[in-house]
């Protein structure tokens, strides 16, 4: 298969310390891929390596089947036809919006260049803003200009480093949705770095969960959320509860809540102690005055309410509709949604 980007066994060292280790990643044309992970896990370092800003210690990077870096021979950044968008927008303050967008356009006459700028302004819904300066725009508008500038010269790959971190929450998710629609309509291949799983879920087609310079798991966001291969990936993508269990057979596990059917993602011998993953929304609680389980914490979150309960000496999180809120200290019974349970 021909990939827009193919990375094989990439390793990058800084002062003899391994920052990226034997990392491999294939991205198809038109895909938006998110690199998700905590600060310092190697996300931005990987972007810089792809862009050609850092030399590889070993491994191979291919763009559209062409080797751009193999650790020995390295194509300069300016010849890779890669666009970059940063969290601080990186607009030139002394240039107008139109001049910023036109900055990267080379080998075009003035008429063709201005026609391309007008196309980009229309594309990012900023027609009529061409003569304004960056300081006259909102954060969301400045990011749209940055997107327009990056798309104007039709890059083969677009790299986005925390592009929405400086956008106000009230407008952020509308902007993310708009830019995603724009990218999909234009067939843009993009890699997007963030530490926000909410941004990742909305913006990306696939996700690569990074941890200390390696990719823990790569695939569709829904698959990673429902079928994490490790507790690290599970914790990275949402709230988690881990219930003690003992494996009795291929799919049967004994817990304090009875027998539960689950799927193991590692070799767990029969009779061995392990843990079952339950998301907070899989823990259903209802009022029950005869129960010995109590609500210890309660957090109102608009449409939902987040609870912490204590059961069998273990703290458990639960999420349910706020339309029927329960009270602190209230006794409740627990019912588990046991579909697609994972054992670790």
From TrEMBL:
One of its GO terms (cellular component) is membrane. Transmembrane segments: none annotated. Residues 5-237 form the ABC transporter domain. CDD domains: ABC_Carb_Solutes_like. SMART domains: AAA. InterPro entries: AAA+_ATPase, ABC_SmlMolc_Importer, ABC_transporter-like_ATP-bd, ABC_transporter-like_CS, ABC_transpr_FbpC, Mo/tungstate-bd_C_term_dom, P-loop_NTPase. GO terms for molecular function: ABC-type ferric iron transporter activity; ATP binding; ATP hydrolysis activity. Keywords: ATP-binding, Cell membrane, Ion transport, Iron, Iron transport, Membrane, Nucleotide-binding, Transport. It holds the Pfam family ABC_tran. PANTHER family: SPERMIDINE/PUTRESCINE IMPORT ATP-BINDING PROTEIN POTA, SPERMIDINE_PUTRESCINE IMPORT ATP-BINDING PROTEIN POTA. This is ABC transporter. It comes from Candidatus Photodesmus katoptron Akat1.
């Amino acid at each position: 298969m021909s990939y827009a980007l193919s990375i094989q066994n990439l390793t990058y060292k800084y002062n003899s310390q391994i920052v990226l280790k034997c990392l491999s990643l294939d991205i198809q044309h038109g895909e938006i891929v998110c690199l998700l992970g905590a600060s310092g896990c190697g996300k931005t370092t990987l972007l810089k390596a792809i862009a050609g800003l850092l030399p590889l210690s070993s491994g191979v990077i291919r763009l559209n089947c062409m080797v751009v870096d193999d650790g020995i021979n390295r194509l300069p950044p300016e010849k890779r036809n890669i666009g970059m968008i940063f969290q601080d927008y990186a607009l030139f303050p002394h240039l107008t919006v139109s001049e910023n967008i036109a900055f990267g356009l080379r080998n075009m006459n003035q008429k063709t260049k201005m026609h391309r700028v007008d196309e980009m302004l229309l594309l990012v819904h900023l027609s009529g803003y061409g003569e304004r300066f960056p300081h006259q725009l909102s954060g969301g508008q400045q990011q749209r200009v940055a997107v327009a500038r990056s798309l104007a010269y039709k890059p083969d790959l677009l790299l986005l480093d925390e592009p929405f971190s400086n956008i106000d929450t009230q407008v952020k998710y509308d902007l993310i949705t708009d830019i995603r629609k724009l990218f999909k309509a234009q067939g843009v291949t993009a890699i997007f770095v963030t530490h926000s799983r909410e941004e990742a879920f909305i913006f990306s087609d696939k996700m690569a969960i990074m941890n200390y310079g390696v990719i823990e798991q790569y695939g569709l966001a829904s698959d990673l959320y429902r079928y994490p291969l490790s507790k690290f990936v599970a914790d990275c993508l949402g709230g988690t509860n881990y219930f003690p269990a003992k494996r009795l057979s291929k799919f049967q596990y004994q817990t304090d809540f009875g027998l539960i059917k689950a799927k193991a993602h590692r070799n767990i011998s029969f009779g061995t102690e392990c843990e079952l993953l339950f998301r907070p929304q899989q823990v259903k609680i209802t009022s029950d005055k005869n129960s010995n389980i109590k609500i210890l914490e309660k957090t109102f979150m608009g449409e939902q309410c987040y609870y912490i309960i204590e059961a069998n000496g273990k703290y458990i999180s639960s999420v349910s509709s706020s339309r029927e809120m329960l009270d602190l200290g209230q006794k409740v019974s627990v019912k588990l949604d046991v579909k697609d349970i994972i054992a670790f």
